[in-house]
Design goal:
binds iron/sulfur cluster; two-stranded parallel ribbon; about 350 residues; 2 domains; Rossmann fold; three-stranded parallel β-sheet; elongated
Length: about 350
Amino acid sequence: MTAGSQKVKRIMSGMRPTGRLHLGHYFGALLNWLEFQDKYESYFSIVDWHALTTKYQSSREIESHIWEIALDWLSCGIDPGQSTIYVQSAIPEIAELHLLLSMVTPQNWVEREPTLKDMVKMLAADETEAHEKVTYGLLGYPVLMTADILAFKAELVPVGKDQESHLEFARDVVRRFNHIYGVEYFAPPSPKFTSTPLLKGVDGQKMGKSYGNDIKLADTDADTIKKVKQMITDRTRIARSDPGHTDLCEVPWPMYQVFAQDIKDQVKAECESAQIGCVDCKVRLAGIINEFLRPIRQKRNELDSDRDRLRKIIEHGNAKARKVAQQTLTDVREIMGLSRWY
Ligand code: SF4
């Protein structure tokens, strides 16, 4: 951003604290956030109530995940001087807005949410299980997500091209709220489309912490080498002397595209002429990934050894975010005619 210019739009995004972040989070979200914080007034939320919608049985673990996610964000360059970093549950106004919006949201809007259907499938193997595991809280998550955005009157929400429906729900709720109460108070948030490169895990599936195939930002060099060595390569290459095929190489070759564009021609030539074996090729890749992550890991270790500083950063963000949400709730209560008892 040029000196003196103003950030005119507000953007809001969040992550569920369910564990340490991995390379997929870095390239899929955090890289975009780094760009946003320079251009927009950025609100980044650690959405612990969203984690509870599916992890309610292990709720005591969420606290430590909040610290981990804050460490990951800050070590990747999310700057508390530019962005507001806060914990969702520290802003009770979001919960109140969720409640108020749930009163105006038709039940069938919630039930038809495609993401909810996916979550139900993921949570329960059969229908009987689904009845017990899909809680009232999970059913209401699209309304909670809407409250997350509207509490800060965010104008932009980053979404992938395939996730536009997530935001359409929030936009519908905004229109309905404004229509019922005869106001133009909330503006429908707009999607900020982001490109999210699909980063494969070591097994060739989508990288995800629940699949156990991820490379975490906070992994040690040795962990990373071990994991990279497990990457699925070209399944047709049996012997070391067989020429490899980069187009059939499932994980290392796509990773080279992300981390080492500058040597991809060299890697391709060495692979296809069998000058290099897959083990050596993966060891080299692990070294490149470790070099890339070195400054992030160093910063993370520094911050981790000063939890007091980390706590202050989060508390500062919580206070800043709460002030904004309090004003929104004051207005919403007024619009709905509920201010008398506050
Ligand atoms: Fe993949 Fe490298 Fe093996 Fe070629 S040599 S198949 S690029 S791991």
